[in-house]
Sequence to fold (835 residues):
Amino acid sequence: MRYAETGFQLEVDLSKGSIDKVETDPRDTALYLGGNGMDAKLLYERVPPEIDPWSPDNLLIFGNGLLNGTCVPGANRVSVNTIAPVNGFFGHSLMGGFFGAEMKMAGYDRIVIRGEAPDLVYLAIHDDKVEIREARHLAGKGMADTQRMIQEELNDKRAWVAAIGPAGEHRVIMASIDCGNSSAARTPGPVMGAKRLKAIAVRGTKDVNIAHPAEAWEMCSRLRKELDANPNVGDWMATDEDDSFHHNNFSWGNARVRRKNFWSPELEERWRNLKYDHMNRWTGCWNCPKACHNLIQWPNRRRFSYKCYGKDTYHMASFQELDFTFEILPVAQDLGLDSYSTPQVIAFALELLEAGILTEKDFPGMPSDIRQRFYYLLHKIAFREGIGDVLAHGVSGAAAIIGKGAEKFDHNTVKKFEQLPIKLGKLNPAYFLMIATGEDMAITQIEGSFPQDPITDPELKEEFIKKWVAVPDKKFVEWFRQWVKRDQLPDEAMVEICDWNECMHYLDDSLGLCGFVSSFRGQFGGTTGYHVWNMPQIITHVTGIEFDKDRLWECFQRNRTLIRALNNRRGLRRSMERPPEDHWAVRNEEYEQQLLTKYYDFKGWTFDGIPTKETLEKLSLGYVAEDLIQRGILTGNEVTALNDARAKKQKG
Amino acid sequence: MDKKGKKTKIVKEIKVDTKKCVGCKACEIACSAFHAVPKYSSVNTARSRIMVIMDEVRDIFVPIRAGDYAQAECNGRNRYVVDGKEYDACTFCPASCPSRDAFKEPDSGLPLKCDMCESVPPLEKPMCVDACTFGALTYEEREEEVKAEEEVKRGEMEMAFEQLVKKHGKKRLMETFARLSRD
Fold:
């Protein structure tokens, strides 16, 4: 018997109309865990670099975290992976909520979608009964209507429906896949649209088995209570109305203007009332004692929920206030647009208009009011009308099409991907590495374990260290102890901080744990819920596979390296690993390149940022090494970055 | 027996505050794990004897516990409007009945009923309440006088047989039992 996982994946080919339930190899679980790791392996094996992301041969995978659907609190995240049309690399997105657990109870660790349906369809899964059903009547519908209509058709109110809106149907780069209060934003939405898959409905009634029942339950009950009582996990933004951090420090508009004194007590009071006068309740995700979503009813809008920084993006891009986000979010959600990148794309377009690169002719009938302009562009983008057809490519894609200097306004992307609108003064070396090299594209998916800032008060510092059980090695404690200025730590510390931060995210994403109780929440207060010391025991009790810290750390290294190699195979090289040029005002190219070399070397990668044959073989990725050699990407004789002649020149 | 010599019993109550429910399903998970055999050996919310009726767009979050099995659908239903929110018919009904999929063992189709997690030694509170960190479910016990005619509390097996008799009829059940005893 398989524990925690079902041992099966559902493989659907929409071109052929075939549906297969395929048994998986349990040895892979021990190597890749689940979620993004298993998805990456499938993408590596089945989607060679010749395949265009828009091709029917690209895969769209809904990969359950290994612990989803079990008694482990906070384990519910599904990794939605594909080859992303935005840049041709590994597309990674996470969806919390209930879809993953339901999928597991239906008997599947992941759903692998291939091909392209001749017309709009949806997939209906009820345990072993799986159907591809006609969905033309759902065209243009938002997630909420789609879920309701499919539930009625299937006569099952308990079915969870993950759906794309009009934006996904029209292959908009910023399209999201939504399910209840959760969203897989950034990269997979347009691929679902390209496959003409409107939605997946899933309902499960099978057991998810636990290997060591009594021990697992005892540990999980204890963890549930710990997480509940721990103020450092969950989303503070759900309850803390002081949001001066984002408003005073992040940039408004097209990542342009910092308003350092924006926040005030008067504003906070006004916004607090605005929120609670319209809020119904907090809502949560499967098996999590933290409720991070705010459920809002705004006049003349359908009820909607949001979490975290999604509260800020629309009004900050438009220089408005919170009421604008509340009125536009449900509309944007029904169009199926991601609230992270879409406002940036709109602000970018309006900046181009102001600069004369785009003209009034490009925006026929656009109102003059800024709020109405946002609505106007939302619809143009979602339905790809007029200028919306260009903007639907995202900031980088649109800038390249528009030309005439528009590229200069594309100043906040890395590997064609919109970043958080942060523009700071001095270079932060650890953040340089994370933003430059992160395969997860957004900094929030990379940072999170090592504190963002030092503690200067010696007493408070020691108090912090005393409670810092998450720390994987004593050397981090020593670095933290000597740390005074944000940008000043030895290079090897910067490299290893980046590595630990990555490690926790990779483990979360393969296990299904939410970053808000784990990888993202170590950086504030240090007492996060999950870490490399308690994870192995939990996994062992739930899956029956023996894990310890070292073995788990190796799983992270394997998944990280595999995804790197997948991207290398699709053309990722050192020259692309650059944070936005204006991310920091003060830059030092020479130092940054030296640091990058040290990071590559630490990872066992070449000077070009490709894992060496030896590194791959050490991580049981010999098949990847063989493939890279066969394709001429590696010769097999490469050395790690610091041993490269070019590195020696860098030092010189 | 209380001090005056009257026969008493403990009435167990779970109080539901729908305003506090966040829809995390921790109650469903705990219930299904506790009733798994062996205990905690699986999670399957379809086997749970508590279910959260959830519709975010309408702000409906109602945890409901499985009550008695009803052989037939109701011939009329109630549609409640509470605080301006309209709830679907059956939302507050605990019955396992032919009109809906809820509270039936997924394998056998047999009705499920909440047993307040009776076990030896007894739990401090039912598992669903223990799992609810949001205070939507709270547990209370109170003493109540036993009326003379009230029957002795039945065991779990007796209750199960009674449900089977209701579903299949006494004759079929006896035949099946006799056949199984011979095997």
